[in-house]
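Entry type: protein chain
Record version: 2
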Amino acid sequence: MLRAVSNWLYPQVCLVCGLAGRDQLDCCAGCEAELPLAAPRCACCGLVLPRPVQRCGRCLARPPHFDASFPAFAWSGEIERLVHRFKFQHDLAAGRVLAALMAKRLTALGAPRPDLMVPVPLHHWRRLKRGFNQSALLCQDLSRHLQHLPWAPALRRRRRTPAQSNLPAARRRGNVRAAFALSHLPVGTRHVALIDDVMTTGSTLDECARVLKRAGVERVDIWVVARA
């Protein structure tokens, strides 16, 4: 009854088209159907390819520390716009709808259920400037949609680095080398899903996976809203 009253007072609105949304989801069915899905890709790093493969040439030549990636969407159109609204315009409603859509896609993709979700950490100065860590908020909402899947800020950023988006691809790996450290990992954690909004070169996620593997984690998957 309370939910019905709440929906009547504050009706769901599709954040894409502005028309009526759906119960517990600010995105109508028509807009959801038109969101850009991830193209054929490498199952390991998510790189877009003409046909799907388990490991691309780059992953074979230099295997990443993570084991698989599950991008929910492609980095284009309305997904790109929603991520920008969430990350840079402090539109937390956009973050909530992205998490809900991401949870549905992860289920459809058959992503294995991990022991723990771990958000990619921000340096405390960047978090203070932004006001929140978008990856941690995604974890909170994903947990709610995925039967209370546990999450924890198991990593911390121990040094401030230039934003990856401002650097060419060749410099990104070196930029984040040794930038992360283990904060606290629950006992018995063997399978972790690293959570972030966008995966571009994968350098940040790979460095996070390296730290987790050194701490004894056996499998690290990448869960992101989109693969650029």
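Comment: The longest strand covers residues 191-199.
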